[in-house]
Amino acid sequence: MRRIMIVLVGLLITGCVPGTSVEDRAADDAREKARRVGNALHGGRVWSAQDMGHRAADLDGIDVMRVGGASTGTPEGVLVVVRTSGSAPEDWPDTGTVTVKRCFELRFNRHTEWDDTPRKVSCPRGEPIRFTPWPKTPEIPSGRLERALPRVPAAGAADEAEVRAAVAALRLDPAVRVEFMTRGAVVGVVLSVRPYLSGALDCVLARVAPGRTAVWSPPRIQRMPGEGGCSAGNAIDPMPPPH
């Protein structure tokens, strides 16, 4: 009986299950980190294989060792092999920590489930893949736009040609899309660009109307695809703010 009690106390102190080693527990920690990588990359947007690898490589403590496939929108999907480390405290009476490195295979396609358990694989030889920097999103100069747009007297009417000339003088980055619309005495302007990594558009709206010229950026929820926040119609007749 005394011996059984000693064994139970030892298990409580070490926090381990009989038959598991400290290396096993460290490997489990590494697998858990790989599982979180899979969850971070999970989503409905279609990404190329290179972009999926790049996104994984941007996460702290993750090395991308191999990337395969074309895109997440194909039946075959994308394969990403990541290398991560895991740690576990040594068994009592030792007080150190054991750290291991393990590789796991992550697959992404239209049928990938959330919180999928990654499969352990042998680590590929060589150094982790190095990715080129992400494309930069051009800045929309809202301050310059506001200063450049004409002011219309309260009894007047906005002239689209004059507004177009003011925007043209800004010499915007070619990646910035420009849209105009006239309705009655009001001219609406939209400057928009789609960031490479974000689902929401970056856009600045302007409303040139008798007595007031306004420039603003809609809330993010209105800038999502299909919401219409970055439309010329919204520049002329702005949506109410979201609740």
Summed up, what is this model?
By secondary structure, this protein is of the alpha+beta class. Helix content is 26%, strand content 26%.
Walk me through this protein's architecture.
The strands form 2 sheets. This protein has a 4-stranded antiparallel β-sheet with strand order 1-2-3-4. The protein has a 4-stranded antiparallel β-sheet with strand order 5-6-7-8. The model is unreliable at 1-16 (pLDDT under 50). It is built from 6 helices and 8 strands. It starts with a helix and ends in a 7-residue tail after the last helix. It is of the alpha+beta class and 243 residues long. It has helices at 2-14, 22-41, 49-57, 142-148, 160-168, 232-236; strands spanning 63-69, 78-89, 97-108, 119-121, 177-183, 186-193, 202-209, 212-216. 26% of the residues lie in helices and 26% in strands.
